[in-house]
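for the recovery benchmark. C-alpha cells below, seq after
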C-alpha cells in the first residue's frame, strides 16, 4: 500500500510508519514540548516589552468540542471528542482526538484528527547512523519492542495506520534531534524525532522514537457516520463519493490547518508569557 501524504502544507495524513519514514509538518504538538528557540526569543522580547495584542484581535478558534468567550475563558467543553479510524489493510482501529470539524466545499463533513496514543517508529543502528527496518524484520522484533516499552511503563498498541505507544511520556525542546536514515538523500530535510527507548536483539541495536510533530489525518464522514481517510485516490462508496486529492486541496482543509496552527501559536505564547512572569526565562 502506497503511503499517502497530504500535499497541502506538507501535512502528513495516513502514514504507515513501518513502510516509510514520513516527512513531518512544521506544526508542533500543542502541549507536548516547548516552542523553538527562535519563537522563545521572540516571545520573550514581546513579554519584556509588555506588548499586548490589539483588543480587537479575535482569539484563535479552540479545538472541536470547546467553547470560549472573547477573553478566552472556557464556557463549555464536550465529553465526546474522540473518533475511531479503521485501517482497511488490516481492520485495526486507531483512536483519535477530533481537533477540527468542518464542511468541505463539496458539502462533505470532515474532521482533522490526531492519534490519542503516541505514534512510534523503529530504526536500526548502523554504527554511524540509523537505517529503516523492513516489514519482515519489524514483525520479528515487535515482542522485544513491546518489552522495551514495558520497562518504562508504556504499552505497545498494534493500531491501524501506525504503531502507537500508550503511557506517560514527556519531553522538551532539548530532547529533539535531527537525523537522516539510510536511503534518504543528504539534501532532504532531516527527520525530527524524540527517542523514547532502545533495545537490542540478535546483535542488532534498535531505537524507538516518536516524531516531534503531530501525525494528523483528514477524514470524511459518510452517511452512516463511518470515517474514510482522504488520500491521493478516489473513494466511491454507497454513502460517500469524493476525490481524495481534490479534498486535500480544498480551501476548507487549509482553513482547518490554519486554525490549528493559530491556536498552537497562542498556546505557546501563553506558556512563554507565564514562564516570563515566573522568572523562568
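predicted aa per position
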Amino acid at each position: 500500500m502506497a503511503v499517502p501524504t497530504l500535499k497541502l502544507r506538507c501535512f502528513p495524513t495516513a502514514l504507515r510508519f513501518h513502510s516509510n519514514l514520513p516527512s513531518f509538518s512544521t506544526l508542533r504538538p500543542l502541549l507536548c514540548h516547548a516552542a523553538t528557540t527562535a519563537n522563545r526569543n521572540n516571545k520573550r522580547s514581546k513579554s519584556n516589552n509588555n506588548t499586548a495584542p490589539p483588543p480587537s484581535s479575535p482569539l484563535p478558534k479552540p479545538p472541536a468540542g470547546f467553547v470560549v468567550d472573547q477573553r478566552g475563558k472556557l464556557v463549555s467543553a464536550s465529553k465526546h471528542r474522540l473518533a475511531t479510524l479503521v485501517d482497511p489493510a488490516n481492520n485495526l482501529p486507531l483512536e483519535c482526538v477530533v481537533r477540527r470539524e468542518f464542511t468541505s466545499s463539496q458539502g462533505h463533513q470532515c474532521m482533522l484528527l490526531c492519534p490519542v496514543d503516541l505514534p512510534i517508529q523503529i530504526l536500526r543502528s548502523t554504527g554511524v547512523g540509523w537505517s529503516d527496518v523492513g516489514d519482515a524484520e519489524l514483525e520479528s522484533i515487535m515482542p522485544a519492542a513491546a518489552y522495551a516499552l514495558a520497562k518504562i511503563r508504556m504499552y505497545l498498541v498494534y493500531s491501524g495506520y501506525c504503531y502507537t505507544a500508550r503511557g506517560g511520556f514527556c519531553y522538551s525542546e532539548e530532547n529533539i534531534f535531527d537525523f537522516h536514515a539510510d536511503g534518504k538523500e543528504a539534501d532532504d530535510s532531516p527527520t525530527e524525532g524524540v527517542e523514547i527507548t532502545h533495545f537490542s536483539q540478535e546483535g542488532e541495536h534498535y531505537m524507538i522514537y516518536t516524531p516531534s510533530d503531530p501525525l494528523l489525518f483528514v477524514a470524511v464522514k459518510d452517511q452512516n457516520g463511518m470515517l474514510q481517510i482522504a488520500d491521493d485516490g478516489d473513494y466511491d462508496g454507497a454513502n460517500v463519493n469524493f476525490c481524495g486529492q481534490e479534498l486535500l486541496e480544498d480551501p476548507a482543509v487549509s482553513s482547518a490547518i490554519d486554525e490549528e496552527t493559530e491556536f498552537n501559536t497562542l498556546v505557546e505564547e501563553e506558556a512563554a508569557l507565564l514562564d516570563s512572569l515566573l522568572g523562568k526565562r
